[in-house]
Write a structure and sequence with these properties.
The chain is an alpha+beta fold and about 180 residues long. It contains 5 helices and 9 strands, in the order βααββββαββββαα. It folds into 2 domains: about 50 residues; about 120 residues, PH-domain like. A 5-stranded mixed sheet has the order 5-8-9-7-6. A hairpin with a 2-residue loop joins strand 6 and strand 7. The radius of gyration is 21 Å and the shape is elongated. The two termini are about 25 Å apart.
Length: about 180
């Protein structure tokens, strides 16, 4: 029994903004060079913007759920490990990234901690200590079905159906 998902920042508008900032920085640096003869501000500006762009491309949210618990690894910011025994309830739900957490990424808000990369669907965990954690997902239906089994909320027929679906998906992946 295992669920895995890997997500990256791949929103087109984010990359459009980064390209725009990079272009503006290069233009401003070139203009400064023409007016003052100093190329260093442009080099530093373009370099910093390029480094930020590379970091955004490398950031990744990996969610792994096994019989032991849930791990959300948000590279390079760290990870959160939640043991099954710590979980009071779990549900896949819709949420407002901006309204509830102030945006995407690793967020702390009134509703708890969020690990989200894109979209508005996530796994809401309520822990026995009262804290809440939301982990964004791009596979809400698959995760919801998996969590029912994980939390012991499915009957044997549904478990067999889920296992057969998982085997079929793994077979398709092996063919690729």
């Amino acid at each position: 029994m295992e669920f895995r998902e890997s997500q990256k920042f791949n929103q087109w508008w984010l990359w459009l903004i980064m390209i725009g900032v990079l272009g503006f920085t290069a233009w401003a640096g070139w203009k400064a060079f023409l007016e003052q003869g100093d190329l260093m501000p442009g080099i530093v500006g373009v370099g910093v913007t390029a480094i930020i762009s590379i970091l955004l491309a490398l950031i990744e949210l990996r969610t792994t759920i096994t019989e032991d618990g849930i791990e959300a690894r948000f590279w390079p910011f760290g990870r959160k490990r939640i043991f099954r025994s710590e979980i009071e309830s779990a549900e896949v739900r819709s949420y407002s990234p901006i309204g509830e957490f102030g945006g995407w990424g690793y967020r702390i808000g009134p509703g708890g901690i969020a690990f989200n990369m894109q979209g508005n669907r996530g796994l809401q965990l309520k822990l026995k200590n009262g804290s809440k954690i939301l982990i964004g997902t791009q596979k809400p239906e698959e995760l919801s079905a998996f969590m029912k089994e994980f939390m012991g909320e499915v009957d044997d027929d549904e478990i067999v159906r889920l296992r057969l679906k998982e085997l079929a998906e793994n077979k398709d992946e092996l063919k690729r």
